[in-house]
Write a structure and sequence with these properties.
The structure is a homodimer of 190-residue chains. Chain A folds into two domains: 1-51, Arc Repressor Mutant, subunit A (Orthogonal Bundle); 61-184, Tetracycline Repressor, domain 2. Chain A has 190 residues and is mostly helical. Chain A has nine helices and no strands. At the A-B interface, helix 8 and helix 9 of A face helix 8 and helix 9 of B. Chain A binds a DNA duplex (30 and 30 nucleotides) through helix 3. Chains A, B: It comes from Streptomyces indicus. Chains A, B: Residues 32-51 bind DNA.
Amino acid sequence: MSHSVYGRLMAVDREQILRSAAALLTRKSTATMDEVAKAAGISRATLHRQFAGRDALIKALEALGLTQLEAALDAARLDEGEATGAVRRLVAEVEPVAGFLAFLVTENQLFEAEAMNEGWNRIDDRISALFRRGQESGEFRIDLSPAWLTEALYGLVGSGAWAVQDGRVAAKDFQFMIVELLLGGVRRSA
Amino acid sequence: MSHSVYGRLMAVDREQILRSAAALLTRKSTATMDEVAKAAGISRATLHRQFAGRDALIKALEALGLTQLEAALDAARLDEGEATGAVRRLVAEVEPVAGFLAFLVTENQLFEAEAMNEGWNRIDDRISALFRRGQESGEFRIDLSPAWLTEALYGLVGSGAWAVQDGRVAAKDFQFMIVELLLGGVRRSA
DNA sequence: ACCGAATGAGACATCTTTGTCTCACCAGAA
DNA sequence: TTCTGGTGAGACAAAGATGTCTCATTCGGT
């Protein structure tokens, strides 16, 4: 029997397809199934065999993105140690899934489904809680709401991912740029 | 003759259409011409009379967005006074066109045209120059590149516009949130 | 070498969107 | 009132995307 082998190979393929699809759809959200297939290096037929249709593809994209984001939050151990360190770990862990995050943030058409809104809210809450913890511990300023800081983090990560993908900044600077700007801002510390 | 009257009314209508189109397409970039028309409160026929087709609509959207952004940069007088103050003025002036900016940033499909890339580069350069000026004057830290700061500003403005439009934060806080986070970061100044 | 599963290429009908057109209607100016 | 330019509603063909199917080919395991 080779079930496990095939299963693993297919899983890898699916994830690879979803990654390239996320990258493409982030740049051109009107991309055709044919374009998605070509971007993944497969035929449209195979794409359709893996994902029943466009809706299924989008749903899978959303599901995998949310799953990976949750995993990143877990790995970052947001409630351990100082909030500052947790933010650094968060950005570091989020980096590999930044493409997915950018896609999920911009693709609000999905949110009409109400269903996965829940998964998104869970992530929002966890990140908000981190910022709130930092405020209560005195590390973070209190005149910026956790909700806004969460949104801002999404925006910065998205900008960072796009800038890297577009070659405007080096990938190795991703984490540093985002963390430093988010934590310290652009003004020179006196 | 009523040329001027009709001309003015049509101009107002066109801009109103473009504004609602930008708002809609930012959320759902696959929106139909029919949906765009409904969102603008007009019929699809009238929409087609104003804009020859979808491409023309997108181009007009891009043209107006860039024009308004340039106007905002002019009004902000980026090269006057301290860089910090210029950043504050910039965010304040950009606020009314934040919806357009969010649309332009996410809609990279246009950038295949190479043509208006020039207009976008001009804006990039002006904002980058502001950050560089702040670094040279000693106001801003020098370990974050002007290119990244420019991208980050786009991301923050986009996030802010989306958060306001979505009711997650109050519109009156828009400017404060963005400027404060961009300038000072989340860490409490010691 | 053989076999089976998966793939790529392409044909095909169907559905959606687009772009154009016509016609009835309404509001403002003469 | 009468005329006129703009609009909304709807019909229509054309173009594009989608989803399904078939068949030849290729790749991996036996």
